[in-house]
Amino acid sequence: MATLVVTPPLLPCPRPFPASRSAGPAHRLLARPPRAGRPRLRDPSPAPAPPTPVEQSADEAHDYPPLRLLDPPQEEDPYPDEMEAADPDFYRIGYARMMRAYGIEFLEGPDGMGVYASRDVEPLRRARVIMEIPLELMLTITKKHPWMFFPDIIPLGHPIFDVIESTNPETDWDLRLACLLLYAFDVQGNFWQLYSDFLPSGDECTSLLLAPKEDLMELEDQDLSSEMLKLQKRAVDFWQKHWHKAIPLKLKRLAPDHERFLWALSIVQSRSFNMKLRMGAFMQDANILAPYADMLNHSPDANCFLHWRFKDRMLEVMIKAGHAVKKGDEMTINYMSGINSMLMQRYGFSSPTNPWELINFSSPAKIHLDSFLSVFNIAGLHDELCHNAALTSGESNFVDGGVVAAARTLPTWSDGDLPAIPSVERKSAQALQEELRKMSESFSTTIQQDEQILDTDEPIRKTREIAINTPSAVGCAGTGYTGSCSYGKSSIRWRSTRIEFCSSCIGDTSVAVPSVPVKTIPLLARMLV
Ligand SMILES: C[S@@+](CC[C@H](N)C(=O)[O-])C[C@H]1O[C@@H](n2cnc3c(N)ncnc32)[C@H](O)[C@@H]1O
Predict the structure, then answer these.
(1) Of the residues 207, 256, 331, 504, which has the fewest C-beta atoms closer than 10 A?
(2) What are the start and end residues of every segment in region (Disordered) (predicted)?
Protein backbone atom coordinates (compact mmCIF):
# COMPACT_ATOMS: atom_id res chain seq x y z
CA MET A 1 0.00 0.00 0.00
CA ALA A 2 1.15 3.50 -0.71
CA THR A 3 2.58 5.53 2.13
CA LEU A 4 -0.08 7.77 3.52
CA VAL A 5 0.61 11.45 3.85
CA VAL A 6 -2.40 13.10 5.37
CA THR A 7 -2.70 16.83 5.68
CA PRO A 8 -6.03 17.44 3.99
CA PRO A 9 -7.20 21.01 3.77
CA LEU A 10 -10.94 21.21 4.02
CA LEU A 11 -13.08 21.84 1.00
CA PRO A 12 -14.45 24.12 -0.26
CA CYS A 13 -12.63 26.80 1.76
CA PRO A 14 -9.19 25.37 2.43
CA ARG A 15 -7.48 26.40 5.62
CA PRO A 16 -3.95 25.15 6.11
CA PHE A 17 -3.37 22.98 9.16
CA PRO A 18 -0.01 23.47 10.77
CA ALA A 19 2.06 20.33 10.38
CA SER A 20 1.85 19.34 14.04
CA ARG A 21 0.64 20.51 17.36
CA SER A 22 3.28 20.95 20.01
CA ALA A 23 2.55 18.82 23.05
CA GLY A 24 3.23 20.12 26.52
CA PRO A 25 2.08 19.78 30.05
CA ALA A 26 0.41 23.16 30.31
CA HIS A 27 -3.27 23.65 29.63
CA ARG A 28 -4.34 26.45 27.39
CA LEU A 29 -7.71 28.06 27.54
CA LEU A 30 -9.71 27.73 24.37
CA ALA A 31 -12.13 30.59 24.55
CA ARG A 32 -12.39 32.12 21.11
CA PRO A 33 -11.53 29.80 18.22
CA PRO A 34 -9.00 31.20 15.78
CA ARG A 35 -10.24 30.74 12.25
CA ALA A 36 -7.17 29.14 10.74
CA GLY A 37 -6.37 25.65 11.90
CA ARG A 38 -6.97 23.92 15.18
CA PRO A 39 -6.11 26.05 18.22
CA ARG A 40 -2.70 25.07 19.45
CA LEU A 41 -0.79 25.27 22.68
CA ARG A 42 1.62 27.75 21.31
CA ASP A 43 -1.06 30.12 19.96
CA PRO A 44 -0.31 33.33 21.82
CA SER A 45 -3.72 34.95 21.33
CA PRO A 46 -5.08 36.31 24.63
CA ALA A 47 -8.17 34.45 25.69
CA PRO A 48 -11.17 36.65 26.38
CA ALA A 49 -13.16 35.44 29.37
CA PRO A 50 -16.05 33.22 28.29
CA PRO A 51 -19.53 34.25 29.40
CA THR A 52 -20.15 32.90 32.90
CA PRO A 53 -22.49 29.96 32.46
CA VAL A 54 -25.25 29.32 34.95
CA GLU A 55 -24.79 26.04 36.74
CA GLN A 56 -27.67 23.63 36.52
CA SER A 57 -28.66 20.40 38.15
CA ALA A 58 -30.41 17.73 36.07
CA ASP A 59 -33.74 19.03 37.33
CA GLU A 60 -32.98 22.66 36.63
CA ALA A 61 -31.86 21.79 33.12
CA HIS A 62 -35.46 21.96 32.02
CA ASP A 63 -35.80 25.71 32.67
CA TYR A 64 -35.35 26.91 29.12
CA PRO A 65 -34.30 30.38 28.03
CA PRO A 66 -36.91 32.66 26.54
CA LEU A 67 -37.77 31.88 22.95
CA ARG A 68 -36.36 34.11 20.29
CA LEU A 69 -38.44 33.37 17.25
CA LEU A 70 -41.76 32.57 18.74
CA ASP A 71 -41.95 34.55 21.95
CA PRO A 72 -45.41 34.30 23.48
CA PRO A 73 -47.41 37.56 23.53
CA GLN A 74 -46.25 40.11 26.11
CA GLU A 75 -49.61 41.31 27.47
CA GLU A 76 -50.27 40.89 31.18
CA ASP A 77 -52.82 38.07 30.94
CA PRO A 78 -53.48 37.22 27.33
CA TYR A 79 -55.49 34.08 27.94
CA PRO A 80 -59.09 33.88 29.05
CA ASP A 81 -59.50 31.71 32.18
CA GLU A 82 -60.70 28.65 30.32
CA MET A 83 -57.58 28.54 28.08
CA GLU A 84 -54.21 26.96 28.97
CA ALA A 85 -50.88 27.83 27.45
CA ALA A 86 -49.57 25.08 25.17
CA ASP A 87 -46.63 22.90 26.19
CA PRO A 88 -43.50 25.11 26.01
CA ASP A 89 -41.93 22.49 23.71
CA PHE A 90 -44.59 23.37 21.17
CA TYR A 91 -42.89 26.72 20.66
CA ARG A 92 -39.46 25.22 20.44
CA ILE A 93 -40.10 23.04 17.41
CA GLY A 94 -37.94 24.24 14.55
CA TYR A 95 -36.04 26.58 16.82
CA ALA A 96 -32.31 26.67 16.04
CA ARG A 97 -30.56 25.85 19.29
CA MET A 98 -26.98 26.28 20.46
CA MET A 99 -24.71 24.08 22.52
CA ARG A 100 -24.60 25.09 26.19
CA ALA A 101 -21.89 24.35 28.75
CA TYR A 102 -21.82 24.82 32.53
CA GLY A 103 -18.74 25.06 34.73
CA ILE A 104 -16.27 23.63 32.20
CA GLU A 105 -13.64 24.78 29.76
CA PHE A 106 -11.94 23.19 26.76
CA LEU A 107 -8.18 23.03 27.21
CA GLU A 108 -5.24 21.33 25.61
CA GLY A 109 -3.59 18.78 27.91
CA PRO A 110 -1.40 15.70 27.74
CA ASP A 111 -4.02 13.70 25.79
CA GLY A 112 -4.81 16.45 23.27
CA MET A 113 -7.80 18.67 23.78
CA GLY A 114 -9.90 17.81 26.82
CA VAL A 115 -12.69 19.12 29.03
CA TYR A 116 -11.78 20.47 32.47
CA ALA A 117 -13.82 21.74 35.42
CA SER A 118 -13.62 25.52 35.75
CA ARG A 119 -14.83 25.42 39.37
CA ASP A 120 -15.41 23.06 42.27
CA VAL A 121 -18.58 20.99 42.21
CA GLU A 122 -20.00 19.52 45.42
CA PRO A 123 -21.22 15.95 45.10
CA LEU A 124 -24.96 15.82 44.45
CA ARG A 125 -27.35 12.94 44.89
CA ARG A 126 -28.45 13.41 41.30
CA ALA A 127 -26.37 13.60 38.14
CA ARG A 128 -25.62 17.16 37.02
CA VAL A 129 -25.61 18.56 33.48
CA ILE A 130 -22.37 20.12 32.20
CA MET A 131 -23.10 20.19 28.47
CA GLU A 132 -26.20 20.17 26.30
CA ILE A 133 -25.83 19.46 22.59
CA PRO A 134 -28.96 19.68 20.44
CA LEU A 135 -29.67 16.96 17.89
CA GLU A 136 -29.42 19.41 15.01
CA LEU A 137 -25.69 19.98 15.67
CA MET A 138 -24.91 16.26 15.79
CA LEU A 139 -24.29 13.96 12.83
CA THR A 140 -26.33 10.84 13.38
CA ILE A 141 -27.02 7.71 11.37
CA THR A 142 -29.28 5.00 12.65
CA LYS A 143 -27.97 1.50 12.53
CA LYS A 144 -30.95 -0.52 11.46
CA HIS A 145 -33.23 -0.43 8.40
CA PRO A 146 -35.02 1.76 7.59
CA TRP A 147 -31.96 3.86 8.35
CA MET A 148 -32.07 7.62 8.52
CA PHE A 149 -29.78 10.46 9.34
CA PHE A 150 -30.17 13.60 11.38
CA PRO A 151 -30.11 16.36 10.51
CA ASP A 152 -31.43 15.51 7.07
CA ILE A 153 -28.92 17.64 5.19
CA ILE A 154 -28.45 15.51 2.07
CA PRO A 155 -30.76 16.63 -0.76
CA LEU A 156 -32.56 13.92 -2.67
CA GLY A 157 -30.55 12.85 -5.70
CA HIS A 158 -27.10 13.78 -4.35
CA PRO A 159 -24.70 10.94 -5.28
CA ILE A 160 -23.37 10.62 -1.69
CA PHE A 161 -26.84 9.39 -0.79
CA ASP A 162 -26.37 6.38 -3.10
CA VAL A 163 -22.88 5.74 -1.70
CA ILE A 164 -24.31 5.61 1.84
CA GLU A 165 -27.27 3.57 0.64
CA SER A 166 -24.92 0.93 -0.81
CA THR A 167 -23.40 0.12 2.60
CA ASN A 168 -24.51 -2.31 5.25
CA PRO A 169 -26.03 -0.24 8.07
CA GLU A 170 -25.03 -2.74 10.72
CA THR A 171 -21.39 -3.29 9.82
CA ASP A 172 -20.40 -0.15 7.91
CA TRP A 173 -21.52 2.48 10.43
CA ASP A 174 -18.09 4.15 10.28
CA LEU A 175 -17.98 4.39 6.46
CA ARG A 176 -21.50 5.81 6.45
CA LEU A 177 -20.78 8.41 9.10
CA ALA A 178 -17.53 9.37 7.32
CA CYS A 179 -19.54 10.01 4.11
CA LEU A 180 -22.01 12.15 6.03
CA LEU A 181 -19.18 14.07 7.70
CA LEU A 182 -17.46 14.73 4.35
CA TYR A 183 -20.75 15.94 2.95
CA ALA A 184 -21.34 18.26 5.96
CA PHE A 185 -17.86 19.80 5.46
CA ASP A 186 -18.88 20.63 1.89
CA VAL A 187 -22.16 22.40 2.71
CA GLN A 188 -21.55 26.13 2.76
CA GLY A 189 -22.26 27.57 6.21
CA ASN A 190 -22.84 24.17 7.79
CA PHE A 191 -21.90 23.98 11.47
CA TRP A 192 -19.35 21.21 10.78
CA GLN A 193 -17.49 23.36 8.28
CA LEU A 194 -16.68 25.72 11.15
CA TYR A 195 -16.22 23.02 13.77
CA SER A 196 -13.63 21.27 11.58
CA ASP A 197 -11.12 23.91 12.75
CA PHE A 198 -11.15 22.17 16.11
CA LEU A 199 -10.69 18.64 14.82
CA PRO A 200 -7.21 17.13 14.77
CA SER A 201 -5.47 17.26 11.42
CA GLY A 202 -3.95 14.16 9.84
CA ASP A 203 -0.72 14.29 11.78
CA GLU A 204 -2.40 15.30 15.04
CA CYS A 205 -4.79 12.35 14.96
CA THR A 206 -3.62 9.28 16.88
CA SER A 207 -5.67 6.86 14.78
CA LEU A 208 -3.59 4.00 13.37
CA LEU A 209 -5.75 4.10 10.24
CA LEU A 210 -3.40 6.87 9.12
CA ALA A 211 -0.18 5.13 10.08
CA PRO A 212 2.15 3.93 7.31
CA LYS A 213 3.21 0.29 7.46
CA GLU A 214 6.61 1.14 8.98
CA ASP A 215 4.93 2.87 11.91
CA LEU A 216 2.64 -0.10 12.42
CA MET A 217 5.73 -2.29 12.71
CA GLU A 218 6.75 -0.17 15.71
CA LEU A 219 3.85 -1.72 17.62
CA GLU A 220 5.84 -4.97 17.70
CA ASP A 221 2.49 -6.72 17.76
CA GLN A 222 1.79 -8.85 14.72
CA ASP A 223 -1.94 -9.27 15.38
CA LEU A 224 -2.60 -5.56 15.88
CA SER A 225 -0.52 -4.41 12.92
CA SER A 226 -2.11 -6.88 10.48
CA GLU A 227 -5.58 -5.96 11.75
CA MET A 228 -4.81 -2.27 11.11
CA LEU A 229 -3.52 -3.05 7.61
CA LYS A 230 -6.79 -4.88 6.91
CA LEU A 231 -8.84 -1.91 8.16
CA GLN A 232 -6.80 0.49 6.03
CA LYS A 233 -7.38 -1.72 2.98
CA ARG A 234 -11.12 -1.85 3.65
CA ALA A 235 -11.24 1.96 3.70
CA VAL A 236 -9.11 2.42 0.59
CA ASP A 237 -11.13 -0.22 -1.32
CA PHE A 238 -14.32 1.60 -0.38
CA TRP A 239 -12.91 4.91 -1.57
CA GLN A 240 -11.67 3.38 -4.84
CA LYS A 241 -15.05 1.77 -5.50
CA HIS A 242 -17.03 4.98 -5.07
CA TRP A 243 -14.57 7.70 -5.99
CA HIS A 244 -13.54 6.34 -9.39
CA LYS A 245 -12.83 8.67 -12.27
CA ALA A 246 -16.29 8.99 -13.80
CA ILE A 247 -18.14 10.59 -10.92
CA PRO A 248 -19.85 13.96 -10.67
CA LEU A 249 -17.72 16.77 -9.30
CA LYS A 250 -20.02 17.27 -6.31
CA LEU A 251 -19.07 13.77 -5.16
CA LYS A 252 -15.43 13.92 -6.25
CA ARG A 253 -14.66 17.05 -4.24
CA LEU A 254 -15.81 15.46 -0.97
CA ALA A 255 -12.78 13.14 -0.97
CA PRO A 256 -10.46 13.91 -3.92
CA ASP A 257 -7.88 11.42 -2.61
CA HIS A 258 -7.95 8.36 -0.36
CA GLU A 259 -5.96 10.19 2.34
CA ARG A 260 -8.88 12.59 2.75
CA PHE A 261 -11.29 9.69 3.14
CA LEU A 262 -9.02 7.90 5.63
CA TRP A 263 -8.75 11.08 7.68
CA ALA A 264 -12.57 11.45 7.82
CA LEU A 265 -12.85 7.80 8.81
CA SER A 266 -10.26 8.28 11.59
CA ILE A 267 -12.22 11.24 12.91
CA VAL A 268 -15.40 9.19 12.91
CA GLN A 269 -13.85 6.14 14.55
CA SER A 270 -12.02 8.02 17.27
CA ARG A 271 -14.78 10.54 18.09
CA SER A 272 -18.17 8.91 17.57
CA PHE A 273 -20.21 6.74 19.89
CA ASN A 274 -23.22 4.49 19.70
CA MET A 275 -26.38 5.23 21.65
CA LYS A 276 -30.03 4.28 21.75
CA LEU A 277 -32.07 7.40 21.07
CA ARG A 278 -35.77 7.64 21.72
CA MET A 279 -37.37 9.68 18.94
CA GLY A 280 -41.10 10.09 19.48
CA ALA A 281 -42.48 6.59 19.82
CA PHE A 282 -39.40 4.88 18.36
CA MET A 283 -36.14 3.74 19.83
CA GLN A 284 -33.26 4.24 17.35
CA ASP A 285 -29.90 2.55 17.63
CA ALA A 286 -27.66 5.35 16.35
CA ASN A 287 -24.03 6.13 15.59
CA ILE A 288 -23.34 9.71 16.55
CA LEU A 289 -20.74 12.42 16.11
CA ALA A 290 -21.53 14.98 18.80
CA PRO A 291 -19.51 18.22 18.67
CA TYR A 292 -18.04 19.40 22.00
CA ALA A 293 -18.85 16.06 23.66
CA ASP A 294 -16.21 14.62 21.32
CA MET A 295 -13.58 16.61 23.25
CA LEU A 296 -14.04 14.36 26.30
CA ASN A 297 -11.11 12.02 26.88
CA HIS A 298 -11.39 8.46 28.13
CA SER A 299 -10.96 7.08 31.62
CA PRO A 300 -12.01 3.65 32.87
CA ASP A 301 -12.91 5.46 36.09
CA ALA A 302 -14.81 8.28 34.35
CA ASN A 303 -16.62 11.02 36.28
CA CYS A 304 -19.12 11.79 33.49
CA PHE A 305 -21.53 9.97 31.21
CA LEU A 306 -23.73 10.75 28.20
CA HIS A 307 -27.50 10.86 28.40
CA TRP A 308 -30.13 11.36 25.73
CA ARG A 309 -32.91 13.76 26.76
CA PHE A 310 -35.63 12.65 24.38
CA LYS A 311 -38.14 15.35 25.36
CA ASP A 312 -36.30 18.07 23.46
CA ARG A 313 -33.79 15.86 21.59
CA MET A 314 -30.75 17.00 23.45
CA LEU A 315 -27.58 15.07 24.28
CA GLU A 316 -26.50 15.76 27.84
CA VAL A 317 -23.04 15.27 29.31
CA MET A 318 -23.54 14.74 33.04
CA ILE A 319 -21.34 14.43 36.10
CA LYS A 320 -22.13 11.16 37.82
CA ALA A 321 -24.23 11.40 40.96
CA GLY A 322 -22.15 11.60 44.15
CA HIS A 323 -18.97 12.75 42.36
CA ALA A 324 -17.06 15.67 43.83
CA VAL A 325 -15.15 17.66 41.22
CA LYS A 326 -12.34 20.12 41.88
CA LYS A 327 -11.53 23.06 39.63
CA GLY A 328 -9.02 21.83 37.04
CA ASP A 329 -10.11 18.17 37.22
CA GLU A 330 -10.46 16.55 33.84
CA MET A 331 -13.98 15.51 32.91
CA THR A 332 -13.93 12.08 31.27
CA ILE A 333 -16.22 9.40 29.96
CA ASN A 334 -15.61 5.67 29.58
CA TYR A 335 -15.31 4.96 25.84
CA MET A 336 -15.34 1.21 26.34
CA SER A 337 -14.41 -1.46 28.88
CA GLY A 338 -12.00 -3.24 26.63
CA ILE A 339 -8.43 -4.46 26.33
CA ASN A 340 -5.74 -2.06 25.15
CA SER A 341 -5.58 -3.49 21.63
CA MET A 342 -9.27 -2.58 21.18
CA LEU A 343 -8.57 0.98 22.35
CA MET A 344 -5.58 1.10 19.98
CA GLN A 345 -7.58 -0.16 17.00
CA ARG A 346 -10.32 2.38 17.36
CA TYR A 347 -8.77 5.39 19.13
CA GLY A 348 -5.00 5.00 18.81
CA PHE A 349 -4.12 5.06 22.50
CA SER A 350 -3.47 2.51 25.24
CA SER A 351 -3.21 2.71 29.01
CA PRO A 352 -0.83 0.91 31.40
CA THR A 353 -3.54 1.08 34.08
CA ASN A 354 -6.32 -0.33 31.93
CA PRO A 355 -8.16 -2.69 34.29
CA TRP A 356 -9.39 -4.74 31.32
CA GLU A 357 -5.94 -5.52 29.93
CA LEU A 358 -4.98 -9.14 29.35
CA ILE A 359 -1.77 -11.10 29.18
CA ASN A 360 -1.92 -14.42 27.45
CA PHE A 361 0.13 -16.89 29.46
CA SER A 362 1.35 -20.07 27.85
CA SER A 363 2.72 -21.54 31.08
CA PRO A 364 0.59 -24.26 32.70
CA ALA A 365 1.53 -22.79 36.12
CA LYS A 366 -1.36 -21.60 38.26
CA ILE A 367 -1.56 -19.67 41.52
CA HIS A 368 -4.33 -19.77 44.08
CA LEU A 369 -7.11 -17.28 43.36
CA ASP A 370 -8.04 -16.55 46.98
CA SER A 371 -4.54 -15.81 48.15
CA PHE A 372 -3.89 -13.63 45.13
CA LEU A 373 -7.09 -11.62 45.68
CA SER A 374 -6.52 -11.14 49.38
CA VAL A 375 -2.93 -9.89 48.88
CA PHE A 376 -4.33 -7.05 46.80
CA ASN A 377 -7.62 -6.52 48.61
CA ILE A 378 -9.61 -7.50 45.58
CA ALA A 379 -12.96 -9.21 45.82
CA GLY A 380 -15.23 -10.94 43.34
CA LEU A 381 -14.91 -13.43 40.56
CA HIS A 382 -12.99 -13.09 37.31
CA ASP A 383 -15.63 -11.05 35.51
CA GLU A 384 -16.44 -8.60 38.25
CA LEU A 385 -13.33 -7.91 40.25
CA CYS A 386 -13.62 -4.95 42.54
CA HIS A 387 -11.69 -3.39 45.34
CA ASN A 388 -12.54 -4.98 48.69
CA ALA A 389 -12.80 -1.92 50.93
CA ALA A 390 -13.63 -4.07 53.96
CA LEU A 391 -10.13 -5.54 53.88
CA THR A 392 -8.19 -2.27 53.85
CA SER A 393 -7.10 0.06 56.60
CA GLY A 394 -8.65 2.92 54.65
CA GLU A 395 -5.27 4.41 53.73
CA SER A 396 -5.69 3.87 50.03
CA ASN A 397 -8.57 2.40 48.15
CA PHE A 398 -6.87 2.53 44.80
CA VAL A 399 -6.17 -0.74 43.06
CA ASP A 400 -3.79 -0.44 40.16
CA GLY A 401 -5.39 -1.30 36.83
CA GLY A 402 -2.51 -3.64 36.07
CA VAL A 403 -3.22 -5.62 39.23
CA VAL A 404 -6.94 -5.89 38.55
CA ALA A 405 -6.14 -6.96 35.00
CA ALA A 406 -3.62 -9.50 36.26
CA ALA A 407 -6.18 -10.82 38.71
CA ARG A 408 -8.50 -11.34 35.81
CA THR A 409 -5.97 -13.02 33.57
CA LEU A 410 -3.45 -14.86 35.71
CA PRO A 411 -4.02 -18.58 35.50
CA THR A 412 -5.43 -19.35 38.92
CA TRP A 413 -6.77 -22.40 40.69
CA SER A 414 -9.44 -22.46 43.37
CA ASP A 415 -10.20 -24.83 46.23
CA GLY A 416 -11.22 -28.17 44.90
CA ASP A 417 -8.92 -27.99 41.87
CA LEU A 418 -5.67 -28.54 43.71
CA PRO A 419 -4.46 -28.87 47.30
CA ALA A 420 -3.02 -25.65 48.78
CA ILE A 421 0.66 -26.58 48.94
CA PRO A 422 2.84 -23.46 49.42
CA SER A 423 5.78 -24.91 47.46
CA VAL A 424 3.55 -25.61 44.43
CA GLU A 425 2.26 -22.06 44.55
CA ARG A 426 5.73 -20.57 44.89
CA LYS A 427 6.94 -22.58 41.90
CA SER A 428 3.94 -21.47 39.85
CA ALA A 429 4.45 -17.82 40.72
CA GLN A 430 8.12 -18.14 39.68
CA ALA A 431 7.14 -19.73 36.36
CA LEU A 432 4.63 -16.96 35.62
CA GLN A 433 7.12 -14.30 36.63
CA GLU A 434 9.67 -15.83 34.28
CA GLU A 435 7.17 -15.79 31.43
CA LEU A 436 6.42 -12.11 32.04
CA ARG A 437 10.13 -11.34 32.12
CA LYS A 438 10.66 -13.06 28.76
CA MET A 439 7.72 -11.15 27.29
CA SER A 440 9.09 -7.79 28.38
CA GLU A 441 12.58 -8.68 27.14
CA SER A 442 11.22 -9.65 23.71
CA PHE A 443 10.66 -5.97 22.85
CA SER A 444 13.46 -4.27 20.97
CA THR A 445 13.57 -1.22 23.27
CA THR A 446 13.27 -0.52 26.98
CA ILE A 447 10.69 1.81 28.48
CA GLN A 448 13.49 4.31 29.06
CA GLN A 449 14.50 4.28 25.41
CA ASP A 450 10.88 4.62 24.32
CA GLU A 451 10.46 7.58 26.65
CA GLN A 452 13.47 9.25 25.09
CA ILE A 453 12.11 8.58 21.61
CA LEU A 454 8.77 10.10 22.60
CA ASP A 455 10.51 13.17 23.98
CA THR A 456 12.11 14.00 20.65
CA ASP A 457 10.52 15.55 17.61
CA GLU A 458 12.45 13.22 15.34
CA PRO A 459 10.64 10.66 13.19
CA ILE A 460 10.04 7.52 15.21
CA ARG A 461 11.83 5.07 12.91
CA LYS A 462 15.00 7.09 12.83
CA THR A 463 15.18 7.56 16.58
CA ARG A 464 14.48 3.89 17.20
CA GLU A 465 17.34 2.94 14.95
CA ILE A 466 19.60 5.18 17.00
CA ALA A 467 18.13 3.90 20.28
CA ILE A 468 18.88 0.31 19.43
CA ASN A 469 22.37 0.91 18.08
CA THR A 470 23.61 3.52 20.53
CA PRO A 471 21.21 3.68 23.46
CA SER A 472 22.64 6.81 25.07
CA ALA A 473 22.43 8.82 21.84
CA VAL A 474 18.63 9.00 21.66
CA GLY A 475 17.37 12.53 21.78
CA CYS A 476 20.50 14.02 20.19
CA ALA A 477 19.82 16.50 17.46
CA GLY A 478 21.38 16.35 14.04
CA THR A 479 19.59 13.61 12.15
CA GLY A 480 18.16 16.15 9.76
CA TYR A 481 14.60 14.84 10.17
CA THR A 482 11.84 16.91 11.66
CA GLY A 483 8.43 16.14 13.00
CA SER A 484 6.81 12.88 13.95
CA CYS A 485 3.11 12.11 13.73
CA SER A 486 0.76 11.34 16.59
CA TYR A 487 -0.01 7.85 15.29
CA GLY A 488 3.73 7.01 15.30
CA LYS A 489 3.93 8.11 18.92
CA SER A 490 0.88 6.07 19.87
CA SER A 491 2.63 2.97 18.45
CA ILE A 492 5.60 3.60 20.75
CA ARG A 493 3.29 4.22 23.71
CA TRP A 494 1.58 0.92 23.00
CA ARG A 495 4.93 -0.89 23.11
CA SER A 496 5.82 0.84 26.39
CA THR A 497 2.42 0.02 27.83
CA ARG A 498 3.00 -3.67 27.17
CA ILE A 499 6.48 -3.63 28.69
CA GLU A 500 5.30 -1.63 31.68
CA PHE A 501 2.32 -3.86 32.21
CA CYS A 502 4.56 -6.94 32.32
CA SER A 503 7.00 -5.27 34.68
CA SER A 504 4.29 -4.04 37.04
CA CYS A 505 3.08 -7.64 37.28
CA ILE A 506 6.61 -8.93 37.88
CA GLY A 507 7.29 -6.21 40.42
CA ASP A 508 10.66 -5.56 38.88
CA THR A 509 11.59 -2.11 40.10
CA SER A 510 14.81 -2.16 38.08
CA VAL A 511 12.77 -1.44 34.92
CA ALA A 512 12.59 2.29 34.31
CA VAL A 513 9.15 3.73 34.97
CA PRO A 514 7.80 6.18 32.36
CA SER A 515 6.95 9.79 33.07
CA VAL A 516 3.27 8.98 33.52
CA PRO A 517 3.35 7.82 37.16
CA VAL A 518 2.03 4.33 37.53
CA LYS A 519 2.23 2.36 40.73
CA THR A 520 4.83 -0.35 40.25
CA ILE A 521 3.38 -3.12 42.26
CA PRO A 522 5.51 -6.14 43.12
CA LEU A 523 2.70 -8.39 42.24
CA LEU A 524 4.12 -11.82 41.66
CA ALA A 525 7.09 -11.00 43.84
CA ARG A 526 4.72 -10.54 46.76
CA MET A 527 3.15 -13.87 45.99
CA LEU A 528 6.53 -15.49 46.48
CA VAL A 529 6.98 -14.27 50.04
C1 LIG B 1 -12.97 11.75 21.37
S2 LIG B 1 -11.37 12.33 21.13
C3 LIG B 1 -11.07 13.28 22.58
C4 LIG B 1 -10.53 14.64 22.26
C5 LIG B 1 -9.09 14.65 21.81
N6 LIG B 1 -8.21 14.55 22.94
C7 LIG B 1 -8.72 15.85 20.97
O8 LIG B 1 -7.60 16.35 21.06
O9 LIG B 1 -9.53 16.26 20.16
C10 LIG B 1 -10.47 10.84 21.32
C11 LIG B 1 -8.97 10.96 21.17
O12 LIG B 1 -8.40 11.59 22.33
C13 LIG B 1 -7.22 10.92 22.75
N14 LIG B 1 -7.48 10.30 24.07
C15 LIG B 1 -8.67 10.20 24.68
N16 LIG B 1 -8.54 9.63 25.89
C17 LIG B 1 -7.24 9.33 26.05
C18 LIG B 1 -6.47 8.70 27.08
N19 LIG B 1 -7.04 8.27 28.20
N20 LIG B 1 -5.13 8.57 26.89
C21 LIG B 1 -4.54 9.01 25.75
N22 LIG B 1 -5.22 9.59 24.73
C23 LIG B 1 -6.55 9.76 24.87
C24 LIG B 1 -6.92 9.88 21.67
O25 LIG B 1 -6.09 10.50 20.72
C26 LIG B 1 -8.29 9.61 21.08
O27 LIG B 1 -8.24 9.16 19.75
Answers:
(1) 256
(2) 1-83
